[in-house]
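job 3f2a | input accepted
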Amino acid sequence: MTNADQYSYRDLLKNEFQARITKNTRYSLRAFARDLSMTPQMISAVLNGKRDISLDSGADIVDRLGFDPNRAQDFLDAIVLEGCKTDRAKKMVLQRIEDRNQTQEGFRSLSTEMFKTISNWYHLALLELISCEGSKSDLRWIASRLGVSVHEIKEAVARLIKLELLEEVDGRLKRTEFHVSALSDIPAAALREHARQLLEKALVSLDQQGQHERDVTSMTMSIDPALLPEAKKMILQFRRRLCRFLESGKRSEVYAFVPVLFRLSQPRDKA
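job 3f2a | predicted structure (271 res):
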């Protein structure tokens, strides 16, 4: 799959349709067509790749679906991308999409001090657990679900509220609208500690979780190190696309995704 194949307005429409079915099992293609002010035959042809939509129609669609500005721009750029005739034009549109998604798309970058404050793994896990269906604001329930002490959860809640990543509304805990992302200038020690904790959790999952609950795979490659910066951008985009996809369904569990790309061989100048 090429980079261009990763950005499809048809996939965005399919994901939106599926998300609406998840929320309302009686929701149908006819209802989706109605919400888009289209006929069922027309939207079916679009989703199946038998009919294209224009940029003007795309602008109407994002308004009708209530997409936020970043998601709307992704949708419109995906329409432009599909219409590109040359690789150069595709590359320019792809770069625009990727540059925007690295800094926007509802992600809030954590400053150095913020990240150090909540670097223990259960802070971010707490934010996600609160988003699950049937979640409770009871500290003992949260502690039990995450397998840590009530004291740790109490302190974590206080930190997250102070950083405006969590809020209390009518006695219930509620996360704010942002996902969080660490800036590249976070001290290596803080990032290493956070990564170490998650990797340790991953090792425990090998023994305590069945294969149907996890996916742990690997591949070994001979590579050109000069391509690593571009590879990191691709991994970033995949992580966020995967996040959007998994969060579009019914949320009931908290998962961590820890992609690890590292060197197995010794540097040639040391061999």
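job 3f2a | The first strand starts at residue 107 and ends at 110.
job 3f2a | closed
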